[in-house]
Amino acid sequence: MSEIEERLAELERLGLHRRLRLVSGPQGPRVLLDGKPVLLLCSNNYLGLADHPRVREAAADAAMRWGVGAGASRLVSGTMTIHRRLEERLAAWKGNEACLLFGSGYLANIGTIGALAGRGDTIFSDEFNHASIVDGCRLSRAEVVVYRHLDTQHLEWSLRRHGGSDQRQLIVTDSVFSMDGDIAPLVEIARLAKEHGARLMVDEAHAIGALGPGGRGAVAQTGLEGEVDVVVGTLGKALGSYGAYVCADEEMIHYLINTARSLIFSTAPGPPAVAGALAALELLEERPHRVERLRSAARTMRKALAAEGFSVEDGEMQIVPLIVGDEHAAMRLCKEALERGVFAQAIRPPTVPAGTSRLRLATMASHTAEDLRMAARALGEAARGIGLDPAAMGPRVLAQRTVVDEHEPEEPYLPMAARERQARAPFDVERESSIPRAA
Fold first, then answer.
1. Could you tell me the domains of the chain?
2. Which of 85, 160, 205, 386 sits at a 20 to 30 Å CA gap from 394?
3. Do the strands 244-248 and 230-234 form a parallel or antiparallel pair, or are they unpaired?
4. Residue from 237, 241, 357, 367 carrying the catalytic annotation
5. Least confident range of 174-188, 310-324, 332-346, 414-428
């Protein structure tokens, strides 16, 4: 048996083996999955715009006018009029001076973090930040201090402990966390950033289209427009296309154009994707009721799950995790739900900490109330059918933690969940380095 075969066998044994599933047709509320019709509950097409006729038409027209590919990086000959048009619209929509398009959210995060912090600097990163933020922190070679999830007391303690006038400091957080659907305390984080002279970077990937007036995100909802140094967003979720953007002031955007390696050394996003995102943004601005439809769908989903006995609170967040715990059990639940016509993918380490494998449910504005009630019934039947108690499944409940005080040990605090995620990470670029790493 080869080394690769051994590793694949190990992944199978651990319940961490993955395969690609084939979806036929557009990303709608119902799809053909490996040839079988199912209700789709794990797509980030939150506003149902990925298959909207106007978005499709805009992408097709762009392909005919500008071609399929941009042909070069942004700094060579890849910046086209369609890119500039979307950047201007996004900046105005988000309330910023300027905007810069990237090829993906992953590229936006690793490029921006690497430009804002490096050796000798310090990054303060939430324990459950997205993998693209984690990898951006690792690749920056800055010192990374991981603070407890949503814990501003621990962030404040960390800022005091690791502050220094001769180094840059960057606080980076998701606004909505992709696997749990919880929201960062941005007002308090922004206050701490200002007090300690740190820059603040917020990833709005899962907040756009869901939070704030007109779906403009958590930064807008909290009234922090203009007070966050860098806002990252995606075109590939609520806006139904592919790519990402960074919004900031003119000076910061000019700096990123000159220093963000993932921008400098990547081909520009293709015109059809950019034009599709622009059409989706126009639809969102013209018809903001889609945001309320998404919130209504989320309320319906949560109430239906609670009626089936799941430990789910009422609310308007479209992301609902059903925590199973064991990796194999999560896969069994996914399979049983599929047998009942509901596709909710099992999420396992390293995407989530060990022992918190789950089904991550994502509602869309295009789901009907009956769709969601049917899905809740199917999930309840599936859970009980394999001996799982729905009452023990729901959003993660954070463990009680003691308040950090000045008698903590000298080394940077690293939560146990963060250690577990690092240990199970698919690669480790700092295996030979002593530089602390993010969760």
1. 11-40+288-392 (3.90.1150.10), 53-285+413-423 (3.40.640.10)
2. 205
3. antiparallel
4. 237
5. 414-428
